[in-house]
């Protein structure tokens, strides 16, 4: 047994994991003991069996390597038998989930702030995933937070940094560290799920795409899968080299931050499919030539066509979506005769449903789609399922969308974000909404009459746990609605999200502009919530 060093420390305020782990500015994480306190709190709570396996990976952002080296030494001191770490410290979030599952690890540390910008002045994050490969549930994150409030020491072993660039086995204290190829296991998994032959044939037949890796983690994965294994041209993947600061951009695949891709896809000579993924590889953006697909529609369209993919043939058990995600998927579930579950925001809420085999595919309006192949949302997976469907059905994205709406109707949908607003104002807005819940039903706002208003609460059908206060829903007669929520992932001030939805049946106007179709809901949202009064903002910063 090698020497274990005990370092004394004091608690930091505010180490509560948010929607997706602990996220703070790099400068905050660089304080002595800050990352160590959090990681030790994780280890204290999960108390690994002697010899347990831990996976460590990150999205390649600034500060990754420093924390990884420290976490490895701490894992050795805390009794882990082996750490698996991606070469260069790289593992996309879905790949980390897969590696945890494949190698039967007890859990993993995922170092990422997802789609938030990176670099010395920007964001960093640490998330703990459990043995099923998914984000820790609230019972675990709550215990981790409680531990951070009383922690007084962390454990490490003396030792040099290991060579993260060279795959192979290393010894740290009494523990083995295995530096693995971050891509191979994941790419192999994708081959078991999708009809690579059909996609290869489509590519040979002239099908083209552009994948924007946003200088983030999916570059190496996309080069290998799209170009090497599927035969797309060598210039298909753009911004394919992970950079510590993502080239100074927000690695968030939406129409604002992936504007270049969007503009390219709206041009007459656009490729057949445009796609992008975020900092850590779990989000996706899908744009056909001249046709953007909202994440909510993407979930519904993928579910409706999932039979095209060999890995899902004949086994769609159910669909799950987060509450603010549009109800487009509900209509597909109904037509296919499978259940549809409505969960709070956050991928962790899908874990139990997936483990219990109640759902096969899940999605969120926040550009996340995934399935039971791992326990995280998965950006490249969504892109590959789209490719698989388009290749088998020999149909364009636009044709598929129109056909879908003609069958199920169209849920016009948008999200308005008010970023970095004063926290007190945002809280007052939400409190004001709560105070109105009882009186709203029956009130009219322009053409809309409120039928139900509530604060969303979820009872997990598997373990019975209750998550209350998950956003305010205002449902109108006729099936449209407005949802209000404060973001759980920001690192400064508060971000107000207003989710707007208007359903039009198959016989209605299916080809309108989304903004026009949502005008009454937008006006109602302002009238009900007093957004300008509480935030001082007259328009959103981002519309997705
Ligand atoms: C992360 C989670 C998602 C969730 C999203 C919501 O990306 O992984 O599951 O939907 O955060 O973020 P918000 O900022 O709206 O809390
Ligand atoms: Zn992400």
TrEMBL record:
<dbReference type="Pfam" id="PF24947">
    <property type="entry name" value="PGM1_C_vert_fung"/>
</dbReference>
<dbReference type="InterPro" id="IPR036900">
    <property type="entry name" value="A-D-PHexomutase_C_sf"/>
</dbReference>
<feature type="domain" description="Alpha-D-phosphohexomutase alpha/beta/alpha">
    <location>
        <begin position="185"/>
        <end position="287"/>
    </location>
</feature>
<dbReference type="Pfam" id="PF02880">
    <property type="entry name" value="PGM_PMM_III"/>
</dbReference>
<dbReference type="Pfam" id="PF02878">
    <property type="entry name" value="PGM_PMM_I"/>
</dbReference>
<keyword id="KW-0479">Metal-binding</keyword>
<dbReference type="GO" id="GO:0004614">
    <property type="term" value="F:phosphoglucomutase activity"/>
</dbReference>
<dbReference type="GO" id="GO:0005829">
    <property type="term" value="C:cytosol"/>
</dbReference>
<dbReference type="InterPro" id="IPR016055">
    <property type="entry name" value="A-D-PHexomutase_a/b/a-I/II/III"/>
</dbReference>
<keyword id="KW-0597">Phosphoprotein</keyword>
<dbReference type="InterPro" id="IPR005845">
    <property type="entry name" value="A-D-PHexomutase_a/b/a-II"/>
</dbReference>
<comment type="similarity">
    <text>Belongs to the phosphohexose mutase family.</text>
</comment>
<dbReference type="InterPro" id="IPR005846">
    <property type="entry name" value="A-D-PHexomutase_a/b/a-III"/>
</dbReference>
<feature type="domain" description="Alpha-D-phosphohexomutase alpha/beta/alpha">
    <location>
        <begin position="15"/>
        <end position="149"/>
    </location>
</feature>
<keyword id="KW-0460">Magnesium</keyword>
<dbReference type="Pfam" id="PF02879">
    <property type="entry name" value="PGM_PMM_II"/>
</dbReference>
<protein>
    <recommendedName>
        <fullName>phosphoglucomutase (alpha-D-glucose-1,6-bisphosphate-dependent)</fullName>
        <ecNumber>5.4.2.2</ecNumber>
    </recommendedName>
</protein>
<dbReference type="InterPro" id="IPR045244">
    <property type="entry name" value="PGM"/>
</dbReference>
<dbReference type="InterPro" id="IPR005841">
    <property type="entry name" value="Alpha-D-phosphohexomutase_SF"/>
</dbReference>
<dbReference type="GO" id="GO:0000287">
    <property type="term" value="F:magnesium ion binding"/>
</dbReference>
<dbReference type="InterPro" id="IPR016066">
    <property type="entry name" value="A-D-PHexomutase_CS"/>
</dbReference>
<dbReference type="GO" id="GO:0005975">
    <property type="term" value="P:carbohydrate metabolic process"/>
</dbReference>
<feature type="domain" description="Alpha-D-phosphohexomutase alpha/beta/alpha">
    <location>
        <begin position="296"/>
        <end position="408"/>
    </location>
</feature>
<dbReference type="InterPro" id="IPR005844">
    <property type="entry name" value="A-D-PHexomutase_a/b/a-I"/>
</dbReference>
<keyword id="KW-0413">Isomerase</keyword>
């Amino acid at each position: 047994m090698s020497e274990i060093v005990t370092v004394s420390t004091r608690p930091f305020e505010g180490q509560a994991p948010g929607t997706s782990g602990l996220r703070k500015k790099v400068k905050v994480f660089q304080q002595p003991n800050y990352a160590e306190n959090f990681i030790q709190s994780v280890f204290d709570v999960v108390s690994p069996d002697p010899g347990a396996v831990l996976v460590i990976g990150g999205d390649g952002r600034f500060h990754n390597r420093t924390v990884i080296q420290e976490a490895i030494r701490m894992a050795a001191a805390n009794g882990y038998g082996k750490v698996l770490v991606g070469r260069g410290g790289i593992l996309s979030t879905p790949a980390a989930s897969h590696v945890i599952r494949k190698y039967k690890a007890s859990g993993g540390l995922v170092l990422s702030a997802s789609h938030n910008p990176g670099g010395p002045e920007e964001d960093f994050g640490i998330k703990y995933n459990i043995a099923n490969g998914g984000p820790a549930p609230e019972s675990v994150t709550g215990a981790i937070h409680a531990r951070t409030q009383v922690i007084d020491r962390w454990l490490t072993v003396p030792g040099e940094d290991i060579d993260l660039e060279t795959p192979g086995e290393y010894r740290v204290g009494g523990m083995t560290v295995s530096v693995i190829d971050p891509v191979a296991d994941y790419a192999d998994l994708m081959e078991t799920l999708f009809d690579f032959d059909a996609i290869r044939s489509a590519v040979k037949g002239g099908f083209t795409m552009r994948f924007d890796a946003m200088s983030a983690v999916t570059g190496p994965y996309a080069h290998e899968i799209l170009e090497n294994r599927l035969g797309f041209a060598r210039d298909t993947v753009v911004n394919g080299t992970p950079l510590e600061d993502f080239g100074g951009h927000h690695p968030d695949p939406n129409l604002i931050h992936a504007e270049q891709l969007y503009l390219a896809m709206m041009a007459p000579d656009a490729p057949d499919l445009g796609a992008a993924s975020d900092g850590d590889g779990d989000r996706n953006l899908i744009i056909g030539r001249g046709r953007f697909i909202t994440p909510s529609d993407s979930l519904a369209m993928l579910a409706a066509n999932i039979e095209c993919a060999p890995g899902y043939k004949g086994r769609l058990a159910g669909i799950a979506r987060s509450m603010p995600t549009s109800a487009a998927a509900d209509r597909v579930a109904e037509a296919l005769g499978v259940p549809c579950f409505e969960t709070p925001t956050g991928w962790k809420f899908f874990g139990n449903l997936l483990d219990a085999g109640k759902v096969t595919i899940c999605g969120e309006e926040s550009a996340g789609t995934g399935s039971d192949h791992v326990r995280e949302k998965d950006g490249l997976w969504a892109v590959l399922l789209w490719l698989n469907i388009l290749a088998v059905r020999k149909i364009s994205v636009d044709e598929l969308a129109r056909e879908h709406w003609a069958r199920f109707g169209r849920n016009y949908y948008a999200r308005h974000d008010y970023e970095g607003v004063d926290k007190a104002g945002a809280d007052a807005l939400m409190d004001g909404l709560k105070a109105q819940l009882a009186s709203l039903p029956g009130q009219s706002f322009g053409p809309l009459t409120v039928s139900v208003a509530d604060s969303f609460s979820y009872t997990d059908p598997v373990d019975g746990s209750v998550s209350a206060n998950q956003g305010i829903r205002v449902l109108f007669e006729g099936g449209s609605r407005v949802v209000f929520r404060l973001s759980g992932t920001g690192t400064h001030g508060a971000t107000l999200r207003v989710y707007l939805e208007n359903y039009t049946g198959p016989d209605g106007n299916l080809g309108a502009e989304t903004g026009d179709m949502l005008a009454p809901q937008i006006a109602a949202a302002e009238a009900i919530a007093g957004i300008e009064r509480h935030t001082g903002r007259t328009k959103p910063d981002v519309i997705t």
